[in-house]
Amino acid sequence: MNAVTNNHQPVILIPDQDAVAQPPISQVLVAEQFSYDNAIVRDFAVATIIWGIIGMVVGLLAATQLFAPAANLDNQYTTFGRIRPLHTNAVIFAFVGNAIFMGVYYSLQRLCKARMFSDLLSKIHFWGWQLIIVSAVATLPLGLTTSKEYAELEWPIDIAITLIWVVFGYNMFGTIIKRRERHLYVAIWFYIATFVTIAVLHIVNSLAIPVGLFKSYPIYAGVQDALVQWWYGHNAVAFFLTTPYLGMMYYFLPKMANRPVYSYRLSILHFWALIFLYIWAGPHHLLYTSLPDWAQSLGVVFSIMLIAPSWGGMINGLLTLRGAWDKVREDAILKFMVVGLTAYGMATFEGPLLSLKNVNAIAHFTDWIVAHVHVGALGWNGFLSFAILYWLLPRMYHTPLYSKKLLNIHFWIGTLGILFYAVPMYISGFTQGMMWKEFTPESTLRYGNFLETTLQLLPMHRMRAIGGGLYLIGAVLMAYNLFKTMAAGTLMANEPAEAPALTTPFVPTGGDTYWHRWLERKPIPLLIGSLVVILIGTMIEFVPTFMVQSNVPTIAAVKPYTALEVEGRDLYIREGCVGCHSQMVRPFRSETERYGEYSKAGEFVYDHPFLWGSKRTGPDLHREGGKYPDSWHYRHMEAPTSMSPGSIMPPYPWLITQTLDGSQTTNKLSALRKVGVPYDDLQIAQANADRQKQATEISGKLATDGINVPADREIIALIAYLQRLGTDIKK
Amino acid sequence: MFKQFISHIPGADLYMVGSFLTFFVFFVLVGLYLWLADKNHMAQMSQLPFDDSSTDKTN
């Protein structure tokens, strides 16, 4: 494009003949003056830094609790069960979420050659998102949780997320529609797929019946709830932690390295193959569980295939740096990108590996999964976010970075942090998985006491905390470095730009008539195309599991929970027990020997939500019912080490002092009936009386063991639930 | 394996093959498009991040 003059407005531009093949009508284009909104990018950048550090501090606290129970701080709001979801939500939605919006708002404006559609919507998006995060920080420590991983927030916050997500989408599509660049660069495709898929995932997984303002029951139960949850969980990783970052990689890496992406063709193949395949792979989180076998196999097959597009993307990124490795040696920002991409490659190689059933049999429920997740989170998401922050802020503030030395230190301390985190966790996971399965020559479990396996891992957990600590120190150094940079410069809040408006109507000629070229110009059909692609896998997995009765065979002996057990189950959810205890005995001899009969799909038909868990820091509890007397549970909850010397489980004394809030019991049973639990009118009418009757019985039994506790205490309800677990099929 | 799940839904094998074929056809179509795609157009597209139209020359 050659500017004839830039002294007067409008600027007349004459397009290069070889650059744009347009009809004669558009030979002379009028350049429009506009500006890019850097203030909103800055806001999201600052939020990324602050929430990142908060999320990591909470993660370090949770990691410490696993070898030093005193770090639970002796109060109910800071126990591991409540802190762990706070950590995951903070790093996923607060740190990564803000980093995504930072990257999207910066790159989208420039790729569209247009300011964001609405400054007001940008602000509503920013402040709305921060408010959602603050709501999470306020509610999760209070035990207000759905217990579904990475979807723990209760229904009013879920609605707020939906509304703010729509604001983001509206603002994004508004910008795309008023763009001054005909073609949509591949980064924008990734952003569009992110928007549409997260919307579908969030809405489908959050469907629930409310009971009051802070409690709800999902409409799905047991196996179906598990399938929906891990369809969501897996694809939240795909479309929140991966696709937006791939979009950012395709924009920022070429900018940082000052060379175009290695293969634009490969980026298109990468895009379509990735979004198509990812959606199918959710069931690999449920191997050897009660999920129908065919669904598990489908998950495995597509997980293996997923390695191809994932590595295609990684290779495309790394090869973009071909001939620029001398720059990588000099530039720590590119080093962050290279390590980030390598971590992505490792995590996406390991993911399919973990989905092989024989590997999964050892790795599932262990620290191996924690290591896998953190290679992705710390390496891929963390390092890419850091690189983009370091690249963006000095540019927007028109000043060089405050300290390159600190930047280098951050890179090395961060990399060391990842190694110190991941290596011990791999060793820990493998050790744990093998110990659970080891038999003596006499055919008994070598480590029959689960606690032995937990205590074996404590040195690894200490080293993991050191790794996390190093990573956190790096992030603090970055915050200092970047805030000093911002203080030294001045934000160019409105960066001036000029570009000609798109000519209308556009008459495609030559190659522009191809169908895909058409799609590359049209955001809405691209959105619909992405939606169709992700819905194919979703429907094929969901429809039979929901519609075909034989997938979840019912068991006549399995009955709905009593009113007291429902309350106890809600306490189990409130305390986040599912963070450390699974409720899924897999069909291995090592598990049936340890826990009892393997879990059957029909046993969970009244479980709203399912509580299978994904990690065993403590033993599985699905066959816990009737294993110990009520008094054992009472004493164990009061002081775990009194029953299990050396236990790292925190004590729960407040369950003994706090009175059970039974004001919602009737409503809870009514809500559960609405989602399919067959309570009759009498059971609902007598819910409170039934609850009190059963509580009095348990209180009486405890009294015979010398424990005097009123029947209205929370511990009574929890004991009722624990004693019910997995007992129906024994009847 | 669970006995109850071995008797999977009728036509599950067909399901697997159908799922794979769906992806395969989709993949081949995208692959064909890319194979036939104009090299110059691809080169132009890959240059898009470098033309941000900013008139701020202080950077």
Report on this structure:
The complex is a heterodimer of chains A (731) and B (59). Chain A is mainly α. Chain A is built from 27 helices and 6 strands. Chain A has helices spanning 38-65, 80-112, 119-139, 155-177, 186-206, 222-239, 243-257, 264-278, 293-320, 325-330, 332-354, 357-363, 367-396, 404-437, 450-456, 458-488, 515-521, 523-547, 563-574, 589-594, 630-638, 640-643, 654-657, 665-674, 681-685, 687-704, 714-724, and strands at 2-3, 11-14, 29-37, 208-210, 216-218, 494-500. Chain A has a 4-stranded antiparallel sheet. Chain A has a two-stranded antiparallel ribbon with strand order 4-5. Chain A is globular. The N and C termini of chain A lie far apart (81 Å). Chain B has helices spanning 3-6, 12-36, 39-46. In chain B, 14% of the residues are buried. The chains are: A mainly alpha (731), B mainly alpha (59). Chains A and B meet through helix 2, helix 7, helix 8, helix 9 and strand 6 of A and helix 1, helix 2 and helix 3 of B.
Decide which structural class fits the backbone of chain B.
mainly alpha
- The N- to C-terminal Cα distance of chain B equals 63 Å
Largest sheet of chain B: none
Described by its quaternary structure, the protein is: heterodimer
Number of helices of chain A: 27
Give the tally of β-strands of chain B: 0
- Total strands of chain A: 6
Distance between the termini of chain A: 81 Å
List the helices and strands and how they pair.
The complex is a heterodimer of chains A (731) and B (59).
Chain A: E1 2-3, E2 11-14, E3 29-37, H1 38-65, H2 80-112, H3 119-139, H4 155-177, H5 186-206, E4 208-210, E5 216-218, H6 222-239, H7 243-257, H8 264-278, H9 293-320, H10 325-330, H11 332-354, H12 357-363, H13 367-396, H14 404-437, H15 450-456, H16 458-488, E6 494-500, H17 515-521, H18 523-547, H19 563-574, H20 589-594, H21 630-638, H22 640-643, H23 654-657, H24 665-674, H25 681-685, H26 687-704, H27 714-724
Chain B: H1 3-6, H2 12-36, H3 39-46
